[in-house]
């Protein structure tokens, strides 16, 4: 028995950790306890050197001294302030009016707002709870299928995990030893593509099952002109002009990829906001408006979050600010927006600060426990065991990626994304690097995969968040006065299944089309280094005169 334990110390240690987590023990304490227990066992069996434990204080201090992790409390605080200041409510109300008459319009509005909230909050709980409280009653009021409504809300909220400034991407970059800015830039396009796939699914449902996603009745649509029109033409012209202005300002720029999108969006935002303000001033002074009510309302509601996106992501992408500095500016920007909406209070700030402190302490404690576990795991040559196991898989890089993603997908049924990021990623990263896989690409693939941990029945946290705000009993709708049926847990779970499939498809797309991520490296030069010639001109120096010898 002793010989068996010595030969299989690493797999036994990993299996013990999984068992403790499945039994319900907190992840931080499970990691630390398993690490220390097997350190003692390893010392007794002669498989672990006690000297390794001397490095433990330095590792714990390294966690506290990690500047990258400072971005987590900043982005968390920013998201919580925005969520409590009513920005989500304003966005959902206006965008819902914009898409309302279209079949499936409310679903498109939820997905669109989910992507915007993801790019401003980065917190899944805030997005799911906000949209669940605001949009779910409206969708049920107008006859949406409960499974479709629940699935769209939960899935759109999880976009906050893959669209920057995602918290999991910060942890992923830290664990893989890569730049958070590169990880953000690499994940930007896959996040937008995933939102597009969600919208594509909503479109298919609206075509195949039209009664499941009805449009809003005309009487429910506001922001109409005097003649009864909605003024969408004015809004379309404004958006087109903003896009043209953004392209014009960037036409001679050398930037590319996500940098180009964010910067051109910034110029378009400035143009649209300036036009909307001019329209408001002219209307107040003369009574004449050249923009419709819908165009002006949509612009005023969308500009603040879009500007905040540039303030955070734009400054990171173009290299003006580090992720930590970008998070600090985002937190300050969220406070300014809350104050501008006259919704900022000391109570709101206190609640946001307390929630931020709890989440930050949660992350740090898990990271400290992970350091204890990894120290022992490396001391018993666990990293060698994992690397040999994974690099010997058939199929090279593709075989490795398929196996790893299947493995993470199964673990996501039982572990949340923080536990996966702190436990699994440090074991997989060295093997991926050994196979020549770009670690930013690898991190984005796993980020999309781990997004399913929020949607997996029965332990998906997004499903729990939605369950906490969805009606559990029959209730009376406050607008129509009708008695409404509750949303069952089974309907929430079944509504999530199609979106889990979409997320798996997205994993395959990122693997098949790495250019979606690899643009973060920049444009490669086509110059062959072997053809470069460096010619140093010959310079004739004057004779050196040292003068007569000194006596």
From TrEMBL:
Keywords: Cell inner membrane, Cell membrane, Membrane, Transmembrane, Transmembrane helix, Transport
Pfam families: DctM (PF06808)
GO CC terms in record: plasma membrane
GO molecular function: transmembrane transporter activity
Entry-linked InterPro entries: DctM, TRAP_DctM
Locations listed in the record: Cell inner membrane
Domain of life: Bacteria
Ligase is among the record's keywords: no
TRAP C4-dicarboxylate transport system permease DctM subunit domain segment(s): 14-516
Segments passing through the bilayer: 12-43, 63-82, 106-136, 148-172, 187-210, 231-250, 262-282, 303-321, 327-344, 356-378, 398-427, 439-466, 492-513
Membrane topology value: Multi-pass membrane protein
Function, as annotated: Part of the tripartite ATP-independent periplasmic (TRAP) transport system.
Matches recorded under PANTHER family: SIALIC ACID TRAP TRANSPORTER PERMEASE PROTEIN SIAT-RELATED, SLL1103 PROTEIN
Protein name: TRAP transporter large permease subunit
């Amino acid at each position: 028995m002793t010989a068996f334990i010595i030969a299989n110390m690493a797999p036994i240690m990993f299996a013990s950790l999984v068992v403790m987590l499945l039994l319900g023990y907190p992840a931080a304490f499970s990691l630390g306890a398993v690490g220390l227990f097997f350190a003692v066992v390893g010392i007794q069996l002669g498989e672990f050197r006690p000297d390794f434990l001397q490095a433990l204080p330095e590792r714990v201090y390294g966690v506290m001294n990690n500047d990258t992790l400072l971005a987590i409390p900043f982005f968390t605080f920013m998201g919580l302030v925005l969520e409590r200041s009513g920005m989500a409510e304003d966005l959902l109300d206006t965008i819902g009016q914009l898409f309302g008459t279209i079949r499936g319009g409310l679903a498109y509005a939820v997905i669109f707002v989910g992507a915007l909230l993801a790019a401003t909050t980065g917190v899944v709980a805030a997005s799911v709870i906000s949209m669940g409280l605001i949009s779910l009653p409206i969708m049920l009021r107008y006859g949406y299928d409960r499974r479709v409504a629940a699935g769209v809300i939960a899935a759109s909220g999880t976009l906050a995990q893959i669209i920057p400034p995602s918290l999991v991407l910060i942890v992923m970059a830290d664990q893989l030893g890569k730049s958070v800015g590169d990880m953000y830039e690499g994940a930007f396009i896959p996040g937008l593509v995933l939102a597009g796939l969600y919208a594509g699914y909503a479109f298919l449902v609206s075509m195949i099952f039209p009664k499941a996603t009805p449009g809003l009745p005309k009487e429910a649509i506001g922001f109409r002109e005097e003649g009864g029109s909605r003024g969408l033409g004015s809004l379309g012209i404004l958006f087109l002009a903003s896009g043209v202005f953004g392209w014009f300002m960037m036409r001679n720029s050398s930037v590319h990829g996500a940098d180009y999108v964010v910067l051109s969006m910034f110029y378009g935002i400035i143009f649209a906001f300036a036009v909307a303000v001019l329209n408001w001033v002219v209307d107040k002074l003369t009574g004449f408006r050249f923009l419709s009510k819908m165009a002006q309302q949509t612009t005023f509601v969308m500009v603040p979050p879009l500007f905040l996106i540039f303030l955070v992501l734009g400054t990171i992408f173009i290299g003006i600010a580090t992720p930590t500095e970008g998070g600090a500016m985002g937190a300050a920007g969220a406070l300014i927006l809350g104050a501008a909406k006259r919704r900022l209070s000391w109570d709101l700030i206190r609640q946001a600060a307390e929630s931020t402190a709890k989440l930050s302490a949660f992350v740090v404690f898990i990271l400290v426990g992970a350091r204890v576990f990894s120290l022992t795991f490396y001391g018993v040559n666990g990293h060698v065991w994992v690397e040999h196991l994974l690099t010997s898989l058939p199929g090279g890089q593709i075989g490795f990626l398929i196996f790893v993603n299947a493995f993470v997908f199964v673990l996501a049924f039982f572990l949340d994304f923080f536990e996966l990021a702190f436990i699994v990623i440090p074991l997989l990263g060295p093997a991926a690097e050994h196979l020549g896989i770009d670690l930013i690409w690898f991190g984005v693939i796993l980020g999309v995969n781990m997004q399913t941990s929020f949607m997996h029945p029965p332990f998906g946290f997004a499903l729990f968040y939605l369950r906490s705000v969805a009606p559990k009993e029959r209730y009376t709708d406050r607008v129509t006065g009708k008695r409404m049926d509750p949303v069952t847990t089974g309907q929430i779970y079944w509504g999530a299944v199609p979106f889990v499939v979409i997320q798996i498809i997205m994993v395959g797309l990122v693997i098949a089309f790495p250019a979606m991520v690899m643009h973060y490296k920049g444009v490669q030069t086509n110059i062959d280094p072997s053809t470069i010639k460096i010619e140093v001109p010959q310079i004739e120096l004057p004779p050196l005169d040292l003068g007569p010898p000194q006596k």
